[in-house]
């Protein structure tokens, strides 16, 4: 009798830790919705219109299931990689469609990244949402500038030396958005 009075409150607290908060649901479902939007934009003929599209669709579905259950899983990188590979293999890619897929992938990544930063039962206060939003605005601004540069330079034929500039641009992007230690 005395042991039950001690164990029951502790067990109740531990069970509360397993519940998924509303913040987690919003972030995870936003990540899934954005990734599905990116997949549908990447494969306009249909998710299973051919064998390659079916493989990409199944890979994205598998990665989304795993990432929904564990937002911090590295298997979550499979979905964007499959979508990017599918885009690279398409010859009829327009700038508008590529931009739409890119921004859908960015939104999905941001949602899953935020979901991975807090415990399952954790909630974001208003200040945390504002901090995450400010960080996302910086990434969005750099992405828009990069997209405009790519659009402006897309009609010009460059040599292989542009690969070096592209790598430097990616490094500059990472240096801009990665958190700094103080």
Key words describing this protein structure:
7 helices; 182 residues; mainly alpha; 74% helix
Quick synopsis:
The chain is an all-alpha fold and 182 residues long.
Structure, described:
This protein is mainly α. It contains 7 helices and no strands. It has helices at residues 2-18, 22-42, 51-69, 78-88, 95-117, 126-153, 162-177. Helix 2 packs parallel to helix 4 (78-88), helix 2 (22-42) runs antiparallel to helix 5 and helix 5 (95-117) runs antiparallel to helix 6 (126-153). The longest helix has 28 residues, at 126-153. The chain is globular and about 80 Å long. The protein starts with a helix and ends in a 5-residue tail after the last helix.
- Please state the CA-atom Rg, rounded to the nearest Å: 21 Å
Give start-end ranges of low-pLDDT stretches: none
Largest sheet geometry: none
Structural class: mainly alpha
What series of H and E elements makes up the topology?
A: HHHHHHH
Give helix % range.
over 70%
User: Globular, elongated, flat, extended or rod-shaped: what is the shape?
Assistant: globular
- Mean model confidence by pLDDT: 83
Count every beta strand, where a strand is a DSSP E run of 2 or more residues: 0
Proportion of strand residues: under 5%
Please work out how many helical segments DSSP would assign.
7
Q: N-to-C terminal Cα separation, in Å?
A: 52 Å
């Amino acid at each position: 009798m005395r042991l039950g009075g001690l164990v029951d409150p502790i067990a109740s607290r531990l069970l509360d830790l397993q519940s998924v908060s509303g913040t987690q649901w919003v972030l995870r479902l936003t990540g899934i919705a954005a990734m599905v939007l990116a997949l549908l934009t990447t494969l306009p003929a249909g998710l299973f219109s051919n064998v390659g599209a079916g493989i990409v669709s199944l890979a994205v579905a598998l990665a989304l299931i795993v990432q929904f259950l564990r937002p911090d899983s590295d298997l979550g990188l499979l979905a964007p990689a499959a979508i990017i590979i599918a885009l690279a293999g398409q010859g009829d890619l327009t700038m508008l469609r590529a931009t739409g897929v890119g921004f859908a992938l960015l939104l999905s990544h941001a949602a899953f990244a935020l979901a991975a930063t807090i415990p399952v039962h954790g909630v974001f206060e208003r200040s945390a949402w504002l901090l995450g939003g400010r960080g996302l605005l910086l990434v969005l601004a750099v992405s828009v500038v990069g997209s405009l540069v790519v659009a402006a330079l897309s009609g010009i034929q460059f040599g292989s030396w542009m690969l070096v500039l592209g790598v430097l641009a990616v490094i500059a992007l990472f240096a801009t958005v990665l958190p700094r230690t103080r």
